[in-house]
Design goal:
With 199 residues, the protein is mainly alpha-helical. Helix content is 49%, strand content 0%. It has six helices and no strands. It has helices spanning 48-67, 72-76, 87-105, 120-123, 129-150, 168-194. It is flat and about 50 Å long. The chain starts with 47 loop residues before the first helix and ends in a 5-residue tail after the last helix.
């Protein structure tokens, strides 16, 4: 029997940042209620479409909050190897995904990829200030344009005129699912960068 490669020795925990939370009222949260932009006074939104918009808004804010306070190198750090994910890569990826969804909504030729080849959104996320600014500008622009395209459909049960006549409801739910999934990734990435935790 041939021996396999030697097992690697795991680094001691000394290089792992200490966990901490900025929140004092609810220590499992990212921020205290008075400082949390997701915290809304009053009743829940009325109706299905308003509820979908509300959930998407909160997940978008969560992603931004997970990036707050970090410099370009920290945002670009691939802190959960062997994954190529970074917080900056997630921002770029979600800008790319917003454009992809818009391609499903609008008829005609699809808009080209923002970052080129597959996985370039993660692979080319570099720790430079210009790259960070460009990524957040891309995300804001693509979100606004996709929001505007979907705003043409007041009925979640309607079918879009673009590819395959996808239901508007499905697009809203898919967007929420995508952001929610990647906010979970952002939780782990941020904790590995500087130890900060919280929902």
């Amino acid at each position: 029997m041939q021996a396999g490669p030697p097992l690697s020795i795991v680094n001691p925990v000394s290089d792992v940042p200490e966990r901490w939370s900025q929140a004092a009222v609810h220590p499992d949260m990212w921020a205290d209620p008075d400082e949390d932009p997701r915290n809304k006074d009053g009743a829940a939104p009325e109706g299905e479409l308003a509820t979908l918009r509300d959930f998407l808004r909160d997940y978008r804010l969560t992603l931004r909050m997970k990036c707050d306070g970090l410099g370009p190198q920290e945002l670009a750090r691939r802190s959960v190897p062997p994954s190529t994910m970074s917080l900056l890569g997630l921002v770029r990826h979600l800008a790319e995904v917003e454009r992809d969804w818009r391609n499903w909504i609008t008829p005609g030729d699809p808009a080209p990829k923002l970052y080129g080849a597959r996985d370039a959104d993660f692979e080319q996320a570099v720790g430079e200030q210009a790259a960070v600014e460009a990524a957040f500008a891309d995300l804001e622009r693509e979100q606004a344009q996709t929001d505007a395209a979907l705003a043409e459909y007041a009925d979640p049960g309607a079918r879009v005129v673009g590819q395959d006549g996808t239901a508007v409801r499905e697009l809203w739910v898919h967007r929420i699912e995508e952001y929610a999934r990647h906010c979970g990734h952002a939780d782990l990435l941020r904790e590995r960068v500087d130890g900060r935790v919280g929902q």
